[in-house]
Amino acid sequence: MADPRWTPLMVEERLTEAADVLKRLPERRIGGYFNTWPQIVPEFCDLVGREPPQLRPPLPTAAAITRMEETLGWTIGLDPVDARIVWLRAGGERWKEVCWKVGLARAAAHQHWLYALCVIAWRLNGRRVPGKRSRQQVIAMVRAACGSAG
Q: How far is CA 16 from CA 13, 96, 115, 139, in A?
């Protein structure tokens, strides 16, 4: 798939979509087990006082699953803390919970997250991330190259 140019914002959107697809996949079931009992049809008096059943979101499309599988490999090679922050944010975690789980302050966690998005975008554009550069220099370099506010 040849996208013209990846930006950190595009990477963030794709990671969010991948996390959503993972949540919507059906539960894994152990094969070989089945139920021979007939389905019981409840009467109205049986349903009084019960909580309504939790509805699951619709299953993802085949194209969404393919994009999700593509996206899963993007965090390989990142620092484990950066990769964890990226997936926590893609899964919809609030910054407060992310900071508690990784043990960083809000500003530091945000910088790790933005750096990881920039590194992924830089790699997807076919470039090598230069060594011996600070996180801020890499973020500024990617912003200038992609023309995004990140």
A: 5, 18, 17, 20
Q: What is the pLDDT of residues 66-83, one digit of tens each?
A: 999 999 999 999 999 999
Taken in order 135, 136, 139, 142, the sign of the CA dihedral is: negative
What type of residue is 86?
V
Token code pair at residue 25: 């996949």
CB 12 within 8 A of CB 117: yes
- Which parts of the chain register pLDDT below 50? 1-3, 149
- pTM of the shown model: 0.79
Tell me how far apart the 2 most distant CA atoms of the chain are, in Å: 70
* Cα angle value 80/86/89 (rounded, 5°): 135
Task: Break the chain into its structural domains and give their ranges.
Answer: 1-23+65-150
Report whether 87 contacts 22 (CB < 8 A).
Answer: no
Q: How many CB atoms within 10 Å of residue 99? A: 19
